[in-house]
Amino acid sequence: MQVTVPDIGDFSDVPVIEILVSVGDEVTKEQPLVTLESDKATMDVPAPAAGKVTEILVNLNDKVSEGTPLLVLETDGAEEPGDGGEEEAPAEKPAAEKPAPEAPAEAPPPPAPAELPDADKQTQVLVIGSGVGGYTAAFRAADLGLKVTMVERHERLGGVCLNVGCIPSKALLHAARIVEETKESAGFGLRFGDPEIDLDALRGWKDEVVGKLTGGLDGLAKQRKVDVVRGTAKFTSDRTVDVDGTSIAFEHCIIAAGSSAIRLPDWPEDERVIDSTGALELADVPESLLVVGGGIIGLEMAGVYLALGSKVTVVELTDQLIPGCDPDLVKPLHAHLAERCEAILLSTKVASAEATEDGIAVAFEGPDAPERQTFAKVLMAVGRRANGHELGLDAAGVEVNERGEIPVDGHRRTNVPHIFAIGDIAGGPMLAHKAAHEGKVAAEVISGRDVVFEPRAIPSVAYTDPEVAWTGLTETEAVDSGADYEKSTFPWAASGRALGLARPEGMTKLLIHPESRHVLGAGVVGVNAGDLIAEATLAVEMGADAEDLGLTIHPHPTLSETLMMAAEKAEGTITDLYAPKRR
Ligand SMILES: Cc1cc2nc3c(=O)[nH]c(=O)nc-3n(C[C@H](O)[C@H](O)[C@H](O)COP(=O)(O)OP(=O)(O)OC[C@H]3O[C@@H](n4cnc5c(N)ncnc54)[C@H](O)[C@@H]3O)c2cc1C
Ligand 1: distance of its center to the CA of 214 in Å? Predict the structure, then answer.
């Protein structure tokens, strides 16, 4: 059979940069034969069938396009695609990116049915939801040569993160940071007047940031020929969904339908009681704001409204802000917030809430609960619930737990082998970067790759002021599980950069295995902690030991040095602090 260049998307006249086989070579099905390079990606052309190379029809640097003959393969005929063989392109598109050599196409994809049920549309991969998890899965599957349909119930693609989560909140937090910095700078002799806040312009800028990203997704979907269907998907069987009257039959499905904000029962239905989406709308700057829930989302929003001028009170049921996070990391944040908030009420419950003419009257319960108070607005930030109960999963036989989460295995496969679930709907941590990585795994498994989702560390970040970030093993988990660990902390008061930023309250902490010296986990509190935690995540993921971090030359003066110095302190080589030599 003649092997030709398959469908390589919009590319033509791309050079052959490597010929990976010689005449006489026996090749297996899917073995890369030739590598092509466009200005965007490197692509391998895989063998469409097992056989022996009898002739090579191209030379290095030849320019080729879809259909150009590459080589002749002698096969036993059994595995040739279609009937005619000779002129047919391989059945599958090549990967748009050169596959890693250690990720061969070993695991067979779950078998496709001989024939799909009759439906208005048929697709190889159906992705439900276009959030970070969904669009990543859809795009990766398309890049791997699969026919993909993505369903989204909202007009704008991008899900929570792009539209009403990560991106708009971080844009507003940037604005908040500028306001706060103009106040802090008075401490070193730079005094500014009060900011003039043009709420419409600020909202417009935030919406523009969101619009650029979500609009970009439409373009990316088009480039990859992903069929985007607008509407709400509901399963009608384990091979079909209904999308507002249109039936779609699928070989594989990736459920990426996300999560929704939890609303506490017995609260008044009142426009002054908002969730994070309402808070991000920036309808006004309420004179007073009660934030119910001292977790990451509540505290980020508290930071925005504090900077805009609201009087903010935070009430949290447990005895610390960001429940679950190591207390030493939360302490500097608590101290900084306590200076700016009206009150931070820990171990306190909202006993009742009533809509009145003046606002929302709230009664509290707890050892230090204050008197009933009235707030202009209340932000409910008590967590998110997975959307698993909204999809008619019974019809497909897919298990879902009482929290709305869909249990999955390491491939992100549900109990129904050709249906996968990723992102918030597959359980915590409910983070965009976790959703994206799961999306890639599910798409690659469906394409036949032998991959699995088994991260050693998933970083968490609170983009508060100061930021709090952690990765890998936390000290709380280590103590609870009785794990062996050694702790090394570097106080930012000894960092020249932190002093120069007038933010010396930060701290960097490493957890290290006492014998192997591997970095098990890390925590950072301070400005830009969210950026710093990436290096520690790499260290955990790569199995680096503390010495690796300590011997890596970090640029000076930067906050990144605090990770190096925490490692040096652990290894007894630090000179920027006086710490008795231990090793
Ligand atoms: C205020 C806020 C700030 C956040 N900040 C961060 C942050 O800084 N960093 C971070 O990592 N995470 C952050 N998150 C969490 C992050 O947004 C989520 O983890 C992420 O969006 C999950 O992605 P997903 O693809 O699983 O689901 P989602 O983003 O929820 O997307 C699911 C999509 O599926 C669609 N859908 C649902 N059901 C159907 C159906 N039946 N038919 C068709 N479409 C359907 C929905 O409309 C939605 O577009 C934040 C969340 C909030 C609320």
Answer: 13
Atom of ligand 1 lying closest to residue 160 CA: 29
Catalytic status, residue 437: no
In this prediction the pTM is 0.83
What pLDDT was estimated at residue 39? 63
* Structural domains of the chain sorted by starting position, each given as residue range(s) with its CATH number in brackets: 2-85 (2.40.50.100), 121-260+386-447 (3.50.50.60), 273-382 (3.50.50.60), 460-571 (3.30.390.30)
Whether the pLDDT of residue 269 is over 80: the answer is: yes
Confidence band (pLDDT; 50, 70, 90) for 42?
low
User: Long-range contacts for 101-105 (Cβ within 8 Å, ≥24 apart)?
Assistant: 103/444, 103/449, 103/450, 103/451, 104/30, 104/449, 104/450, 105/30, 105/447, 105/448, 105/449, 105/450
Phi-psi label, residue 354: left if phi above 0, alpha if psi -120 to 50, beta otherwise: beta
Per residue in 71-80, pLDDT (tens digit) is 898 987 644 3
- For the cut 50, the answer to whether the pLDDT of residue 519 exceeds it is yes
- Sole residue written with tokens 């000076």: 556
Q: Locate 442 and state its tokens.
A: 């599910």
Closest-CA residue, ligand 1 atom 45, reads 129
